[in-house]
């Protein structure tokens, strides 16, 4: 079976390939095809955009297509950047620029909790029909500063309490075991009937020793939960 993976993000493609690996499944990347103009993402939700992209690329390519739409939802910012995560500030903004803007907006709302979540909506289109869809979510907090060099996108500012680190400080295997994209694409793997879709366990969660302790949430030791509850407006996380 051939399946077009409709993303141009190399980080996302790498993660998806690591989950959708099975004999008899041939994954096709957009870079394997003649150039296709990207559709305008007009959906107001992640699910709407995933469906839109899946149907669009299926029609353009003639292939069964999986598309995803994902992003960071920050409660204190009323859900921003949300579906605009990849275009937050502007389409060509760097992630350090986006981090700075997020920290500035949070600083202006110190009474609000720093709770946040990554969301990934996945849809599969066969022709003009959506034949499968699911959503994965992972809950966490916005760290007080970027930390870690792994992952991509907003991972350096997304603190995952169970690991005691940001998602940029763990291995890709550890990240996918809990993260939104891992959840969603394991559900797709189950639907496709692939073997061993469950995440492999790993104990390699510790942050690199080269990371400065000050980049972690205040009063925080690696691999331990924050001392204060996220709802405490005085907590610095």
Provide the helix percentage: 10-25%
Number of strands: 7
Gyration radius (Cα, Å) is: 18 Å
Mean pLDDT level = 86
**Unreliable segments (pLDDT under 50, ≥5 consecutive)?**
200-237
CATH class descriptor name = Alpha Beta
Structural class: alpha/beta
Q: Strands of the biggest beta sheet: in what spatial order?
A: 2-1-3-4-5-6-7
Within the CATH hierarchy, at the fold level, what is the topology?
Answer: Maf protein
By DSSP (H or I, 4+ residues per run), the number of helices equals 5
Strand content: 15-25%
Instruction: Compute the number of structural domains.
Output: 1
Specify the overall morphology.
globular
In whole angstroms, how far apart are the ends? Answer: 46 Å
Major β-sheet, in short?
A: 7 strands, mixed
What letter string, H or E per element, gives the SSE order?
Answer: EHEHEHEEEEHH
CATH architecture assignment name: Alpha-Beta Complex
Annotation keywords:
alpha/beta; 7 strands; disordered C terminus; Maf protein; 5 helices; globular; 237 residues
Topology diagram in text:
Elements: E1 2-5, H1 10-19, E2 26-29, H2 46-61, E3 65-74, H3 95-107, E4 115-126, E5 129-142, E6 158-160, E7 165-166, H4 172-178, H5 180-192
Parallel strand pairs: 1-2, 1-3
Antiparallel strand pairs: 3-4, 4-5, 5-6, 6-7
């Amino acid at each position: 079976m051939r399946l077009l993976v409709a993303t141009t993000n190399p980080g996302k493609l790498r993660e998806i390939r690591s989950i959708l690996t099975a004999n008899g499944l041939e994954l096709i990347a957009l870079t394997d095809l003649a150039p296709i103009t990207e559709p305008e993402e007009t959906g107001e939700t992640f699910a709407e955009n995933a469906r839109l992209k899946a149907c669009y690329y299926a029609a353009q390519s003639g292939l069964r297509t999986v598309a995803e739409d994902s992003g960071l939802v920050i409660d204190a910012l009323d859900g921003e950047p949300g579906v605009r995560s990849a275009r937050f500030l502007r389409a060509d903004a760097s992630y350090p620029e986006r981090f700075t803007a997020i920290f500035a907006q949070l600083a202006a709302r110190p009474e609000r909790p720093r709770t946040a979540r990554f969301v990934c909506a996945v849809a599969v289109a066969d022709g003009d029909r959506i034949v499968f869809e699911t959503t994965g979510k992972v809950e966490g907090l916005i760290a007080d500063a970027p930390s870690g060099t792994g992952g991509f996108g907003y991972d350096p500012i997304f603190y995952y309490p169970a690991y005691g680190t940001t998602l940029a400080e763990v291995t890709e295997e550890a990240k996918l075991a809990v993260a939104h994209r891992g959840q969603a694409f394991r559900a797709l793997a189950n639907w496709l009937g692939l073997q061993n879709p469950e995440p492999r366990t790993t104990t390699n969660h510790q942050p690199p020793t080269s990371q400065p302790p000050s980049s972690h949430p205040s009063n925080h030791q690696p691999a331990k939960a924050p001392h204060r509850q996220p709802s405490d407006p005085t907590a610095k996380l």
